[in-house]
Specification:
binds pyridoxal-5'-phosphate, 15 strands, 2 domains, Aspartate Aminotransferase, domain 1, Aspartate Aminotransferase, domain 2, alpha/beta
Length: 412
C-alpha cells in the first residue's frame, strides 16, 4: 500500500539545484527526458577536471592512478546502487541507448539465429526497439510484440502464450514506461520468462530514478540505465549483465583499452568489463555519476516514493479538472509513477507545449520516442508531465490554469 506521508524537505532539496534558482518562472516537468543536476555533481566534476584529471588505466604516474581509482570507484558506486554481485558486471556506456545496443550487437549478434525471437512490449522506447529491428533485418530473427490493455498493463496472458512458443530467447522490456508511467511487475515477469528459458533485459532508464533497483533480487540478465536520468551527467550510463553472460559475449567496439594483446593478425580481448569499454571512457562523467549516486543515496527511497506519489495525485487531480483533457494510461494515480501523459481534444500537444513554455512550464510534447505505443493508442502525439523529487505540489497545481490559458489562446 502506497504511503502518502511525505517527509522530504523539498525546499532544502531545491536549494541544491542551481538550475532551479532562476528569477523568472521555471517549472521543470521534463525530468523523464533528463534530470537537473545538484550542485554536488557539478562541483565534483569541476574539481576533478581542475585538479585530478588524467586518462585512466594508462599512465603509471600518480595523477593517472588517482583518476583510475575515481573511475573504478564509479563502477563500485553503480554496482552498489543496483545491488549487483560483482563490480565486473557493470559496463560503462554512453547511456541506456548504447547499453541496449550493446546487448543486441554483442549478445544478440553472437547468439541469435534465424527463427529465434526477441519479445518486446508495446510500452517500449525506440532505443529498445530499433536495435532488435536491426537484428531482424540482419539475421532474420523474429521481433514479437506483447500487447497492453487500455491502461497500459502488459497483457500477461499474451506474454505467457508467446513464451510457451519456445523460441523467445530474450524478453527486453521497460521497468517503467516513459509515456504512461506504468510500472510492469518485472520481478514476476522475469521469473516467468526464466521458466521458459528466455533471458530478460530491463530498460531501467525511467525506473532507476524513482525506485530502488536490485538486479540480484530481480534476477534480470541485463539492465540498462543512463546517468542523466538519475541526477548525474549526460554521456555516461551503465549496462549490468550477469558475469557468465559477459564471459561469452564478444566485444562490441574495438580499440584501445578492450584488449589483452594485439598482433598483426589478430587480438585477444580483455576480460569484462574492459572488453566492452573501448577507447577513452567518460572519466569526468564517471566522477559526476558517483557524486549523483552518493547524493541520491542520502535520501530514503520511501521518502522519494511518497513525495512523488503525492505529486502524481496532484497531477491527476489537476488534469482531471481541465475540460477536454484525457489522461493516457492508468485510471488510478496510485498505479502511475514518474510521468503522466495526456491529450487535449481542442489543442495539439506541440502548440500547447510551446505556449506553456512561454510561461516557463517545461513539458515534453510528441511521441516521446514511443511511436508504436502512440500508434496503438491511436494518437500521433501527447503531452507529458514528468515528476522528480525537486518538484512541488504548487508547481503541479499551477499547471492547471496555465493549460486552460493556453487552450483559450489557441481556440480563441
Ligand atoms: C524508457 C527509456 N528508455 C530508453 C531511453 C533512452 O535513454 P538515453 O537517451 O539516455 O540513452 C529513454 C530516454 O528517455 C527512456 O525513457
Amino acid at each position: 500500500m502506497l504511503s502518502l506521508c511525505v517527509s522530504l524537505d523539498v525546499t532544502a532539496i531545491r536549494r541544491q539545484f542551481p538550475a532551479l534558482q532562476k528569477s523568472e518562472q521555471f517549472v521543470y516537468l521534463d525530468t523523464a527526458a533528463s534530470a537537473q543536476k545538484p550542485e554536488t555533481v557539478l562541483r565534483a566534476m569541476d574539481a576533478f577536471s581542475r585538479q585530478q584529471y588524467a586518462n585512466v588505466h594508462r599512465g603509471l604516474y600518480p595523477h593517472s592512478d588517482e583518476a583510475t581509482d575515481r573511475y573504478e570507484l564509479a563502477r563500485e558506486s553503480v554496482r552498489s546502487f543496483v545491488n549487483a554481485q560483482h563490480r565486473a558486471e557493470i559496463i560503462f556506456t554512453k547511456g541506456t541507448t548504447e547499453s541496449l545496443n550493446l546487448i543486441a550487437r554483442s549478445w544478440g549478434h553472437a547468439t541469435l539465429k534465424k527463427g529465434d525471437a526477441v519479445a518486446l512490449t508495446l510500452l517500449e522506447h525506440h532505443s529498445n526497439i530499433v536495435p532488435w529491428l536491426q537484428l531482424k533485418e540482419e539475421k532474420g530473427i523474429e521481433v514479437v510484440w506483447i500487447g497492453i490493455d487500455e491502461q497500459g498493463h502488459v497483457d500477461r496472458k499474451e506474454l505467457s502464450r508467446i513464451l510457451r512458443k519456445g523460441n523467445i530467447r530474450l524478453l527486453s522490456m521497460t521497468g517503467l514506461s516513459n509515456v504512461l508511467g506504468i510500472r510492469p511487475p518485472i520481478a514476476d515477469i522475469i521469473a516467468e520468462a526464466h521458466r521458459s528459458e528466455a533471458l530478460v533485459a530491463i530498460d531501467a532508464a525511467q525506473l532507476i530514478g524513482h525506485h530502488a533497483v536490485s538486479v540480484q533480487e530481480l534476477d534480470c540478465d541485463f539492465l540498462a540505465f543512463s546517468g542523466h536520468k538519475v541526477y548525474g551527467p549526460t554521456g555516461i550510463g551503465a549496462l549490468y549483465a550477469k558475469r557468465e553472460l559477459l564471459r561469452s559475449m564478444p566485444p562490441f567496439l574495438g580499440g584501445g583499452m578492450m584488449i589483452r594483446e594485439v598482433r598483426q593478425d589478430g587480438f585477444i580481448a580483455a576480460d569484462a568489463p574492459q572488453k566492452f569499454e573501448a577507447g577513452t571512457p567518460p572519466i569526468i562523467e564517471a566522477v559526476g555519476l558517483t557524486a549523483a549516486l552518493e547524493w541520491l543515496g542520502k535520501i530514503q527511497w520511501k521518502d522519494i516514493e511518497a513525495h512523488e506519489a503525492a505529486l502524481m495525485k496532484t497531477a491527476y487531480a489537476t488534469l482531471k479538472t481541465i475540460p477536454g483533457v484525457r489522461i493516457l494510461g492508468p485510471r488510478r494515480f496510485e498505479e502511475a509513477c514518474g510521468c503522466v501523459s495526456f491529450v487535449c481534444e481542442s489543442a495539439h500537444p506541440h502548440d500547447l507545449s510551446e505556449l506553456l513554455g512561454q510561461e516557463g512550464f517545461c513539458l515534453r510534447a510528441g511521441h516521446h520516442c514511443a511511436q508504436p505505443l502512440h500508434e496503438h493508442l491511436g494518437i500521433p502525439a501527447s503531452l507529458r508531465v514528468s515528476l522528480a523529487l525537486y518538484n512541488t505540489e504548487e508547481e503541479v497545481r499551477s499547471l492547471g490554469p496555465a493549460i486552460m490559458r493556453a487552450v483559450k489562446t489557441l481556440i480563441g
